[in-house]
Design goal:
Layout: E1 51-53, E2 64-66, H1 71-86, H2 96-119, E3 125-131, H3 137-145, E4 163-166, E5 184-186, E6 198-203, E7 211-215, H4 224-235, E8 239-245, H5 252-264, E9 267-275, H6 280-293, E10 301-305, H7 317-332, H8 334-391, H9 400-410, H10 419-434, H11 442-472, H12 477-483, H13 494-516, H14 520-529, H15 531-543, H16 552-572, H17 574-604, H18 616-630
Parallel strand pairs: 3-7, 3-8, 4-6, 5-6, 8-9, 9-10
Antiparallel strand pairs: 1-2, 4-7
Helix pairs in contact: 1-2, 1-18, 2-8, 7-8, 8-11, 8-17, 8-18, 9-11, 9-16, 10-16, 11-12, 11-13, 11-15, 13-15, 13-17, 15-16, 15-17, 16-17
């Protein structure tokens, strides 16, 4: 040999400068190419008769692409992609961080691999060269391309931006956004260009048509963005060309990726680099056993023993021949290509179904959290309404100023001591009132309305505080409370709205009194007693409808209730009084419920800023089922 590596692809290496030399390698017998198939192959639908064309730059024939499956599957996958795009996970609940990463990975898998591969099954096989730091990925890619396409060196990480190497006649497959649409295209050819947001395209005559290589960043890079990019590139590949060394083939990080490959059914080949000749058999046997344990028994292994690099830092061609032969067969043999593409594609679709179900669960958890927060609001204000309903009827309001004014009204300051005497005096005062001398009721009415005003506001405030406290205890809810610090504060205009509510209810009561006293005899009694006076007494009767207080207050409230009842019965009769009291109480509750409903809406408005569609889980599962049905 004359020092120029020769082989199936016949590289003539003439690089200026000094190469990077390693200890001498010894040649190993060529290995027979192995088919990268493990386990059962999932059969997709038969190719349709349709051909999908891909525009090429001027001067190129238009490629003809046979779809690997029916138009219906392509449409179903695109529809699923549209549903995936609608998924939002805004709440910081348990598992949300992982779900967001999974969502990004699923979107990338669809955009970078599934949609383009299903649409263009005849596109070149994309083999991503991945591995650990310093495993020799860039050196391998340079050697296969017979050109310095990716910078190799001792500084780590060396590869920070991916490099895609393709045959010159197949540039049209990669210059656009068919694959990896999130990365811009760099066609400068400068191996020192390291922009992680771009992918550098390099044409190499040494590569056969039908296969392209990507030199990926290290999967165990100290830079997180490099690791993330490596994962994205591996997910976009038809084939993982995993490079490892004799000293690092058992490392945990590479095996986590190989484990994922086994789970997904991704086609994999292993390049075992820098193996001491004397340890070759032992290392290969151990690696083969580890692969078998992971379900990767049939993965081909290509060994490169320790030997000096040639001119330009290239691997000896004689060691690359088995790998070159295998890649060339993959590029030119339609059956071999279909095995790799179909296997990886089927595995990706299987994994997609699993991930979509997981995303549906994550989205459902978000929806359930929002529903839980909504339920807290509804239960808090429902409790507030119930409390107002009870306390506006159990005599709770007949205290303090109200009680004093009522005693003045009926002249019953000694009610507690002598209830029977009070009833007698009541009869006298009713007779006097019906004789045309109405009793003063303004002060009593004001006291009743003020008590009701305080009651409604107190329970509104309690409900708002309860919502804020309970939301803060729900994962995802504490952020909303932080973002809306006014949730537990009553609006400045709420007291005015309560005053308006009470005035409207007072109008309701007066309307009921007028309507009930429409016959001539009752009208005379009402007019004699005064409409406002009767209304105030009816209001008090509503507030003591059930009389639920205890102790001394029971006697006071009970006596007050009976006195009010007797006054009203003297005017309307007992049956009419029961109906009037019930109707007045119901109208009060309706108005309070409407007021609290507005308060609920105020608080629930904080949830409207959450971009979350409640039907997302169902739509995701339906779209995933449609994809499964078309396979």
């Amino acid at each position: 040999m004359d020092g120029r590596p020769i082989g199936l692809w016949g590289c003539d290496v003439r690089f200026p400068g000094r190469g990077f030399f390693r200890p001498r390698r010894t040649s190993t017998p060529p290995e027979a190419p192995a088919e990268p198939v493990t386990g059962a192959t999932v059969t997709l639908a038969a190719p349709s008769a349709r051909h999908v064309g891909k525009a090429r730059p001027s001067g190129h024939d238009e490629p003809v692409t046979h779809t690997v499956t029916t138009d219906a599957l392509v449409a179903a996958v695109r529809a699923l992609r549209a549903e995936i795009n609608r998924v939002q996970l805004p709440l910081h609940i348990d598992g949300a961080t992982h779900a967001r990463r999974e969502l990004a990975a699923v979107r990338a898998q669809l955009d970078d691999y599934l949609v383009p591969r299903l649409t263009h099954v005849d596109a070149p096989v994309l083999a991503v060269v991945g591995g650990s730091t310093g495993s020799g990925k860039s050196t391998l890619v340079n050697s296969l391309a017979c050109s310095l396409v990716s910078r190799a060196g001792v500084l780590r990480p060396t590869t920070r931006a991916p490099v895609l190497v393709h045959h010159p006649e197949e540039a049209f497959w990669f210059v656009g956004s068919r694959i990896l649409p999130g990365l811009t295209r760099d066609r400068t050819g400068d191996p020192d260009h390291q922009d992680p947001s771009s992918i550098r395209l390099v044409a190499a005559d040494a590569l056969p048509q039908g296969v392209a290589l990507i030199d990926a960043p290290d999967i165990d890079s100290v830079v997180e963005s490099n690791r993330d990019l490596a994962r994205q590139l591996l997910s976009a590949a038809d084939l993982w060309l995993f490079v490892t060394s004799a000293s690092r083939y058992a490392d945990a990080v590479p095996w986590s990726f190989l484990h994922q490959a086994a789970e997904r059914g991704t086609s994999v080949a292993i390049v075992l680099d820098r193996v001491p000749a004397e340890a070759l058999v032992a290392v290969r046997d151990h690696l083969s056993g580890m692969l078998a344990t992971e379900g990767l028994r049939s993965v081909p292994i290509f060994s490169l023993t320790e030997s000096p690099l040639g001119e330009g830092g290239m691997l000896p061609e004689r060691q690359l021949e088995p790998l070159r032969d295998w890649l060339t067969t993959l590029a030119t043999d339609s059956r071999a290509k279909n095995v790799v593409v179909r296997r990886t594609l089927s595995g990706a679709l299987d994994a997609l179904d699993v991930h979509v179900h997981a995303l549906a669960d994550a989205s459902s958890a978000q929806v359930q959290t929002v529903e839980q927060l909504q339920a807290i609001v509804q239960s808090s204000y429902g409790e507030a309404t119930r409390r107002v309903q009870e306390e506006a009827a159990d005599g709770s309001l007949l205290r303090g100023e109200v009680l004093a004014r009522w005693q003045e009204y009926v002249g019953a300051g000694d009610l507690v001591r002598s209830f029977e005497a009070a009833v007698g005096r009541l009869r006298d005062r009713v007779t006097t009132a019906l004789g045309g001398r109405p009793a003063p009721t303004a002060e009593l009415g004001v006291a009743l309305q003020e008590g009701l005003h305080q009651l409604i506001l107190a329970h509104a405030e309690a409900a708002a505080l309860q919502v804020s406290r309970r939301w803060s205890s729900v994962p995802g809810g504490e952020d909303i409370v932080t973002d809306h610090p006014d949730l537990d504060r009553l609006p400045a205009d709420l007291p005015a709205h309560v005053t308006e509510l009470i005035q409207q209810w007072r109008t309701d009561i007066l309307d009921l009194v007028r309507a009930e006293g429409k016959d001539r005899r009752t009208t005379a009694r009402v007019l004699s007693f005064g409409v406002n006076g009767v209304g105030v007494v009816l209001m008090l009767a509503v507030f003591s409808h059930t009389v639920g207080v205890s102790g001394a207050e029971l006697g006071i409230a009970g006596g007050s209730a009976l006195l009010a009842q007797k006054i009203l019965e003297a005017i309307f009769g007992d049956q009419a009084v029961r109906e009037l009291t019930t109707e007045a109480h119901q109208r009060l509750l309706e108005r309070v419920s409407a007021l609290y409903a507005r308060e609920q809406d105020r608080i629930l408005a904080a949830l409207t800023t959450i971009d979350l569609a409640t039907d997302t889980p169902e739509r995701l599962l339906k779209a995933a089922a449609a994809v499964k049905a078309q396979r």
